[in-house]
Specification:
The complex is a heterodimer of chains A (394) and B (94). By secondary structure, chain A is of the alpha+beta class. Chain A is built from eight helices and 22 strands. In chain A, a hairpin with a 3-residue loop joins strand 20 and strand 21. Chain B is α+β, with helices and mostly antiparallel strands and 94 residues long. Helix content of chain B is 18%, strand content 56%. Chain B has a six-stranded antiparallel sheet with strand order 1-2-6-5-4-3, with no helix packed on it. In chain B, strand 3 and strand 4 form a beta hairpin. Chain B is elongated. The chains are: A alpha+beta (394), B alpha+beta (94). Strand 2 of chain A pairs antiparallel with strand 5 of chain B, so a sheet runs across the interface.
């Protein structure tokens, strides 16, 4: 029943008014001839409004003649009448079709590549790798062979443990798991030296296997041999071994920085202006013409990709430039202040480099003063274990 | 009448729905504004305030205002509008 009405919406139906004295008879005949009427409304005693399907309308005329009723069409409704009404609006129709075609065509391309999971590897490198394998912004979706790309990336790079590429909509999601670089493991049966990996002063050296080459208080460079992989015996001659041992050494970490006593600082005044531009790949349309009126300003650029659905990205980006007005302010530091500030800054930087800050034995501050600036060198002395295995190549 | 009673026994055994087997009308009223009548014969009268339907066992009178016939087909009819009262006129003598 409801289904029939729905179909008649598509095929088309008419709203009719019936005028006559035998309307009940008219209706009964309609029903017995299986003509579907719906939304029947009675008005006064001689009027009836009803909806009837397009195909049944011709049959109605005959019934009306028999029952001496008058039928008038009040309104034509449904899809065919709607299309007929808008027949003259050809450009609208063409644009509508063009819009849908372009939507379907655009959905076949990749418009956004999202790389997640990278920490040490720069994203540009991965983008380059993807580009070489045919996954770029604007490449056809069904030409992308994800398993092939994954394989070639895994073969190319040792520092990537796992790559996953998922294409949803126009969005390519590239997930990367970085591998920890493994030290070269040398087989225990192979002969090896222990080599310094840092510039350091030896504090203690104990060799379980092999001959120590350096003594305590020796200063070694990066790469010089600490424990050589051979033993010289009186009777046996030189015998190569897999050297083992522990070397404790002082390692110096130093950092230098300079600071002008008279400085210009830029403070935000609170005034800001935002300007927008549209970017389509490399083509930029500026929606503004003038630069901001401020003399000094900071610029913050935000980019936003347009998308229709949750993962249907369009190749259009909106770029928002926000300009914050700044005001220069000359600040003069006293020497003590500058020194304190510099030391604090250097300490923070150095402590990031040192693996174990509890092993710091000594701190040294070297100060070079001038009229206009102050220069400070901070040196940390750290007790560390050094030494890496290196295979002996004959 | 005897013949009919035998039928009903069989139907009870088979658990057949009443409205399919017999000609009795089934009237469903949902809310005060909607009414569905199945198994009717024809429309006797239709006004904005009064509907008279003929069924196989009698006549149904519906009073109200703004009464519309939402859907009309061969065996069911949907009445919408403010329904005030319904009454029946039995034809079959018992």
């Amino acid at each position: 029943m409801l289904f029939k009405i729905l179909i008649s919406y598509i095929i088309g139906y008419v709203q009719i008014s019936v005028e006559g004295y035998f309307i009940e008879r008219f209706m009964n005949i309609c029903i017995s001839k299986k003509i579907l009427l719906w939304n029947i409304k009675r008005e006064k005693s001689t009027y009836l409004y009803a909806n009837v399907g397009i195909k049944n309308f011709k049959k109605l005329k005959e019934i009306a003649r028999v029952t001496k009723c008058k039928i008038n069409i009040k309104e034509k409704k449904g899809l065919p009448f709607f299309l007929n009404k808008h027949k003259k609006r050809k450009i609208f129709l063409i644009l509508l079709i063009a819009f849908f075609i372009s939507l379907f065509a655009l959905s076949n391309f990749v418009w956004n590549i999202e790389i997640t999971g990278t920490e040490n590897i720069p994203k540009e490198e991965i983008e380059k790798l993807l580009e070489e394998n045919g996954l770029t912004i604007g490449s056809l979706k069904n030409k992308i062979d994800t398993s092939k790309i994954i394989n070639s990336i895994r073969l190319n790079r040792d520092d990537i443990a796992w790559v996953g590429i998922k294409i949803t909509g126009t969005n390519a999601d590239v997930k990367i798991v970085e591998a920890d670089l493994k030290p070269e493991i040398i087989d225990e049966n192979d002969y090896c030296n222990i080599v310094s990996n840092k510039e350091a002063m030896i504090v203690k050296i104990t060799a379980k296997n092999g001959t120590p080459v350096v003594k305590e208080n020796d200063i070694v460079k990066n790469g010089s041999i600490l424990i050589a992989g051979y033993i010289e015996g009186k009777y046996t001659g030189t015998r190569y071994v897999h050297s083992e041992g522990e070397i404790l050494a002082k390692v110096w970490y130093s950092k230098k920085d300079k600071m002008e006593l008279q400085q210009q600082e830029y403070n935000k005044t609170g005034n800001m202006e935002s300007k927008y531009s549209i970017r389509i790949k490399n083509f930029v349309i500026n929606l503004y013409k003038t630069l901001p009126n401020f003399q000094n300003y900071d610029t913050i650029v935000e980019e936003k990709k347009l998308k229709i659905f949750s993962n249907f990205y369009l190749p259009i980006e909106i770029v928002k430039n926000t300009y914050y007005e700044t005001q220069p302010q000359s600040v003069e530091y006293s020497k003590e202040e500058a020194q304190e500030k510099l030391i604090k800054q250097l300490e923070e930087e150095l402590e990031k480099e040192i693996e174990d800050p509890s092993k710091i034995i000594n701190k040294q501050v070297n100060k070079y003063e001038n009229e206009n600036n102050i220069e400070i060198e901070l040196i940390y002395e750290v007790l560390e274990k050094i030494g890496v295995d290196e295979k002996i190549v004959f | 009448m005897k013949n009919k009673r035998k039928e009903t026994r069989l139907e009870k055994l088979l658990e057949m729905p009443k409205e399919i087997v017999s000609n009795e009308p089934r009237i469903t009223i949902s809310g005060f504004n909607e009414m569905l009548i199945e198994n009717y014969k024809n429309i006797l009268e239709y006004e904005e305030f009064y509907i008279k339907l003929n069924t196989f066992i009698g006549v149904i009178n519906i009073n109200g205002y703004n009464l519309n016939l939402e859907k009309v087909s061969q065996d069911d009819i949907m009445v919408t509008g403010k329904i005030d009262s319904i009454d029946f006129e039995n034809i079959i003598e018992e």
